[in-house]
Amino acid sequence: MAHARRDFFKAAAVTAAPLFIPRSVWGANDRPAYALIASGGRGRYLNGHFQKLGAQCVACCDVYKPNLEKALAGANGAKGYLDYHELLAAEKSIDFAVLAPPDHHHCPMLLAVLEAGKDCYAEKPLSYNLEQSVTMVDAVRKSDRIVQVGMQRRSAPSLIQAKKLVDEGILGRITVVKPQWNWNVARPLNNSPLEGELDWNRFLGSAPKRPLEPMRPRYWRYFRDYAGGNMTDQGTHLMDVVLWFTGSAPPKSAVASGYVAKMTGAEHPDVFSAVFEMDGFLANWTLDYCNAYQNGWSITFMGDKGTMILDEAGYRVYAEPWKAAAEPIYQEAAPVPIETHIQNFLDCIKSRQQPNCTVEIGQRAVAGPHLANIAMYSGRKARLAADLVTVS
């Protein structure tokens, strides 16, 4: 059975190959031009892949000069900007923007890109809070722009095939799903002086004004003024797959607890656990940045007919009743590439079809993690209404 299923899905993957293999259709005079807004590590990573797939970076923007200089060095001929409003006003010929800023800039930057009439590839999580999710979805739908949220698992061939198995009923009734992320990377935050120039006021944007502490721009993800921590950053990726594979709505309620174990100076925890009440099952989302057991991300779907484990290596399915040393009835070794997700966006800006990860998908994916943060910091069980913004 395992071999038959393996052959079937390999054949299916070959048949579907044109959907996933990057295509070189941009002619010398038909390369989509874009601007990279926020050129930190993630932004530069995306920049390299967009260029490999045929797009042309004509402008880069960052409030931290070393980040901007590194991005310009990797984008031949691109112009540099400190302010993204100035970039959008000057670079009217761009086809789209790539956004990779701290979370609190996601909403204002996307609104500015839409106002400029450009398409957008926006990094996850979609929003800084539940209210901004609504604002962003409404703005996109009032426009005619293509917006892809950067949750690349939505375009991963291996996950698409794994979902087909779930849709076929291989797991039976799913009762518990366990997303987790383990990395042994937690360390005290470095608060030594920054190297190079930073426009601190532009970095703060709409966040509360305060004196510069170098660890804040250096590790912005771990401060509540700028982001939702790893609860929303990593959680958005994994909770999206939970919703996608099960067909569930976002969580009805959440309870959560966490603490700063080793990342001294951080506000968001480096160890936490959240339990979500879903449509007919529970989701237990845990993260431990102080331990590398089962290193990386994984999601375990537990059903009354089988168990599926997704992780960085691929996926495996075990039949019920499980027994020690049982062999998987199906397994596939396959990574999650970024290229297929970027290619999907590039295809859609030409076809004007909706991409694999719309803003609505982004809103639903981050709703649970936002709810878990509310539950954790208020010390109570938090309930989310169907409007995905009202919390009780």
Task: Give the topology.
Layout: H1 2-15, H2 17-20, E1 33-37, H3 41-52, E2 56-61, H4 65-73, E3 79-81, H5 84-90, E4 96-99, H6 106-115, E5 119-122, H7 130-141, E6 147-149, H8 157-167, E7 174-182, H9 200-204, H10 215-218, H11 229-246, E8 253-259, E9 271-277, E10 282-288, E11 296-303, E12 306-311, E13 314-319, E14 330-333, H12 339-351, H13 359-378, E15 382-383
Parallel strand pairs: 1-2, 1-4, 2-3, 4-5, 5-6, 7-10
Antiparallel strand pairs: 7-11, 8-9, 8-15, 9-10, 11-12, 12-13, 13-14
Quick synopsis:
The protein has helices at residues 2-15, 17-20, 41-52, 65-73, 84-90, 106-115, 130-141, 157-167, 200-204, 215-218, 229-246, 339-351, 359-378; strands at 33-37, 56-61, 79-81, 96-99, 119-122, 147-149, 174-182, 253-259, 271-277, 282-288, 296-303, 306-311, 314-319, 330-333, 382-383. By secondary structure, the protein is α/β, with parallel strands linked by helices.
List low-pLDDT spans: 1-28
Helix content: 25-40%
Overall number of strands: 15
Largest sheet: 9 strands, mixed
Walk me through the structure.
With 392 residues, the chain is an alpha/beta fold. It has a domain at 157-336 and 360-383: Dihydrodipicolinate Reductase, domain 2 (2-Layer Sandwich). The chain is 35% helix and 21% strand. The chain contains 13 helices and 15 strands. The chain has helices at 2-15, 17-20, 41-52, 65-73, 84-90, 106-115, 130-141, 157-167, 200-204, 215-218, 229-246, 339-351, 359-378; strands at 33-37, 56-61, 79-81, 96-99, 119-122, 147-149, 174-182, 253-259, 271-277, 282-288, 296-303, 306-311, 314-319, 330-333, 382-383. Strands 14-13-12-11-7-10-9-8-15 form a nine-stranded mixed sheet. The chain has a six-stranded parallel sheet with strand order 3-2-1-4-5-6, with helices on both faces. Strand 5, helix 7 and strand 6 (147-149) form a beta-alpha-beta unit. Helix 11 packs across helix 13. The longest helix has 20 residues, at 359-378. It is globular and about 60 Å long.
